[in-house]
Design a protein that fits this description.
The protein has 19 helices and no strands. The protein is mainly alpha-helical and 432 residues long. Aspartic acid (ASP) binds next to helix 18 and helix 19.
Length: 432
């Protein structure tokens, strides 16, 4: 009989005695990062403060590296354990079906919210494109080429290369097949499952230490990034220039995060959305600071198990998948951005073209890697599909790094709601 990790976990403290402390420190870290970057950003960029700049970068890099170091073995072992558990219980097909249904429908809802909002606000009308804005490296991407690339990535030719290059989807597929077959080869397979469970357990313990480094890492990441943008003054003036667009995306993200997802959570699990958000405050704040759902995954899994008490095996299966392909925030942003660019160029998009945006933005969000500003790259496909100049992404560049943080936090929020819903249906969640 496999060693039961869930049982071991109950021997661990499920939450610290002050559950608010870490989220508070993370907020303080982000605020400190914005303040430091805002005040001394220019000096950081110009190299006037080389030691300070180097130190901030070191803090940020150490935190990011530690998260990335954990994420590949965590994904592989989580998926093996999750898949093995599901296939032993003959629940693979149904769990997959419901998980994809959740991902697909919430992404479509998110894009629709974005499209409705952008059609009301028209942030790009009268924006007036600066013809000198050109992004040399942008190339046209057709939707079917993007789809073929996505499918091609599912079968990596070299697993080590996939791990090194962050082809998470390829690793997921391999781990799923591997975990599924493990349950069919008897005793030796059980031993490998036990090994994967033990590795998971060790990694989660490392994450428990790592989270306490997060506030410092976040100061470094945020301050250095604001510095790269030229400091507070420069950031404010860019935000002012693109305020209508920025606020339209933020408005859409808020509607989706504060109304749609909580409603779904309550309908399907009867969990209190505010308490659920509190359970996932750490990963959402980390997502905001790192702009990467993949790097945040160790914290998301930790919160699911130790704060929210979701069924371990189901959430370990659902969360890595979600981090890679379920990106509601990204999808919503892509839709708004594409219509904004079209308006800025004076191009009117017909109803049929908006449907194309709806579908391609969904695909673009699935195809976006869970790393910083990946959405900006896959947006080229949506622009190509509706014949809007792909150079248009250049208009958004100056504020994209900041919007990326908001949309990544919403991506992680969507994953957490999905994990709760799916593990309610297929796992054994204790009452909230
Ligand atoms: N940074 C996002 C994520 O990791 C992807 C994107 O929208 O660029 O979820």
């Amino acid at each position: 009989m496999p060693h039961d990790v869930a049982r071991t976990e109950h021997a661990l403290p499920l939450s610290s005695s002050k559950p608010w402390l870490l989220p508070l420190l993370l907020v303080v870290g982000a605020v400190a990062g914005f303040t430091i970057g805002g005040l001394w950003g220019e000096a950081i960029v110009s190299g006037d403060m080389p030691f300070f700049a180097g130190f901030l970068k070191l803090l940020g890099d150490l935190f990011m590296n530690a998260l990335k170091m954990i994420v590949v073995p965590l994904i592989v072992c989580s998926m093996i354990v999750g898949m093995a558990a599901l296939s032993e219980q003959h629940k693979v097909g149904k769990t997959f079906g419901y998980t994809f249904l959740y991902y697909f429908s919430t992404t479509l809802i998110a894009v629709s919210i974005g499209l409705v909002l952008v059609s009301i606000v028209h942030p790009g009308v009268g924006f007036g494109v600066d013809a000198s804005v050109r992004s040399e490296s942008v190339r046209v991407i057709r939707w079917y080429d993007a789809l073929f690339d996505l499918v091609r990535g599912l079968v990596p030719s070299n697993l080590v290369e996939a791990a090194a290059k962050g082809n998470i989807l390829g690793l997921l597929v391999f781990s799923l097949v591997f975990g599924g077959i493990l349950t069919r080869i008897g005793e030796p397979g059980q031993k490998v499952i036990e090994l994967a469970e033990a590795v998971n357990e060790v990694l989660m313990r490392i994450v428990r230490f790592l989270v306490w480094l997060a506030p410092l890492g976040i100061i470094g990441l945020v301050a250095y990034r604001v510095g790269q943008e030229g400091g507070g003054q420069a950031v404010w003036s860019e935000l002012g220039r693109l305020a209508k667009y920025f606020l339209t995306v933020l408005g859409g993200l808020t509607i989706h995060a504060a109304f749609v997802l909580p409603l779904l959570l309550w309908i399907f699990t009867r969990r209190n959305p505010i308490r659920h958000a509190g359970h996932f405050a750490e990963p959402m704040l980390t997502a905001f600071s790192t702009a990467s759902s993949a790097a945040t995954l160790p914290l998301t899994i930790r919160s699911a198990e130790q704060n929210a008490g979701l069924d371990t095996k189901t959430s370990r299966f659902v969360l890595p998948l979600g981090a890679t392909i379920n990106m509601d925030g990204t999808a919503l942003y892509e839709a708004v951005a594409v219509v904004f660019i079209a308006e800025a160029y004076g191009i009117h998009l017909s109803g049929a073209q908006l449907v194309v945006v709806l579908l391609t933005a969904t695909l673009a969000a699935v195809g976006a890697a869970a790393i910083p500003q990946a959405g900006l790259v896959t947006m080229v496909m949506v622009l190509t599909a509706v014949h809007v100049p792909v150079e248009g992404v250049g208009i958004l560049l100056s504020v994209d790094w900041l919007l990326d943080r908001f949309r990544t936090a919403i991506n992680v929020w969507g994953d957490s709601v999905g994990a709760a819903i799916i593990s309610e249906k297929f796992g054994k969640n204790p009452p909230d």
